[in-house]
Design a protein that fits this description.
The chain has about 325 residues and is an alpha/beta fold. It contains 11 helices and 12 strands. The strands form 2 sheets. It has an 8-stranded parallel β-barrel with strand order 1-4-5-8-9-10-11-12, surrounded by 8 helices. Strands 6-7 form a two-stranded antiparallel sheet. A hairpin with a 2-residue loop joins β2 and β3. The longest helix has 17 residues. The chain starts with 13 loop residues before the first helix and ends with a helix.
């Protein structure tokens, strides 16, 4: 009892604080999202995501080489496709010479040991901006899952190590797993967006890929019929366990900071690695507030990243990855 027990002894200096620190973020924790676009020599800043860019494939090659030198060894690819290639069935997503497929090959040719994960979703390829096929005001589930499975096989053929379905269609993990197995891709992993919430934090990301739901009659204006209600907690455990039972190797929670209770719930319940996506809105808020001088950018960034890992994340998908490396000095 006090005064024999004084917890402040373990906070008395930076050296002792480091010695007893429970949670340490390292470069190995990061999965780096990268946005690719057509063209040459393109490094176009995303207005709502300061210092983050849409990259043409030649610039993607330079970027992944830089990431590797920095000790960042895993990337998550997203493709920004041209409007004329979009349709209701995501046909361009299956093109073996499509932008995503070429991006995978670009990364693997530039840096063969880089772990490549790919976004598997229809919204960047959809004329309606949805993660599934739209029919009579509804998002079709099973038909969309079949397209996602074909997309996953196409990515595996191009050299992806993991596919990352981000759509939240029911049963799509099993459909993808069976398709990969049938094609002989037994070692291709699946990182499932298992607890992906219908969040307002995705706005800058949708700007980056021009993938927001279209404002068209008889088309849902949001994604609430398939992404999860942010008021729900136990549903996340159910969704995650279903994905694992269907063959997911990694489960993801998205977004991050407002959902750390969900991360801890899932971490306590499952025996696969848990990923967290610190999303574009979380990134943009820190950048904007720091630009105004209202908070210390690096201090807040480190606190948020540590909180995500402390909650139970094994993997952090974050736009702050390079900023974090910079703080290591």
């Amino acid at each position: 009892m006090y005064p024999l027990i004084r917890p402040r002894r373990l906070r008395a200096s930076e050296s002792v604080r480091k010695l007893v620190r429970e949670t340490i973020v390292t470069p190995d924790d990061f999965l780096v999202p990268l946005f690719v676009t057509e063209g040459k020599g393109v490094k176009k800043e995303i207005p709502s995501m300061p210092n983050y860019f849409n990259l043409s494939l030649d610039m993607l090659e330079k970027e992944v080489k830089e990431l590797w030198k920095m000790g960042l060894c895993s990337v998550l690819l997203f493709a920004k496709v041209e409007d004329h290639l979009k349709d209701n069935k995501g046909t361009e997503a299956l093109n073996p010479d499509g932008l995503m497929q070429r991006a995978i090959k670009t990364v693997k040719n530039a840096c063969p040991q880089m772990l490549v994960m790919t976004d598997v979703a229809m919204d960047p390829f959809s004329s309606y901006g949805h993660d599934g096929i739209v029919a009579e005001g509804q998002i079709l589930n099973d038909e969309s899952a079949e397209v996602l499975a074909e997309m996953s096989v196409s990515h595996a053929k191009a050299g992806a190590d993991f596919v990352a379905p981000s759509d939240m269609m029911d049963g799509r993990i099993l459909t993808i797993r069976e398709a990969l197995e049938d094609e002989g891709f037994t070692n291709t992993g699946i990182m499932a967006y298992s607890a992906k919430y219908a969040s307002a934090f995705y706005g800058p990301f949708r700007d980056a890929l021009d993938s927001a739901p279209a404002d068209i009659a008889n088309v849902p204006k949001d994604k609430k019929t398939y992404q999860m209600d942010y008021a729900n907690r136990y549903e996340a455990i159910k969704e995650t366990q279903m994905d694992i039972d269907e063959g997911a190797d990694i489960a993801m929670v998205k977004p991050g900071l407002c959902y750390l209770d969900i991360v801890r719930e899932i971490r306590n319940e499952v025996d696969v690695p848990v990923a967290v996506y610190q999303v574009s809105g979380e990134y943009a808020m820190v950048k904007a507030a720091a630009e105004k001088g209202w908070l210390d950018h690096d201090a807040v960034m480190l606190e948020q990243l540590t909180a995500i890992k402390r909650a139970g994340a094994n993997i952090i998908a974050s736009y702050f990855a390079k900023d974090f490396i910079r703080t290591l000095g």
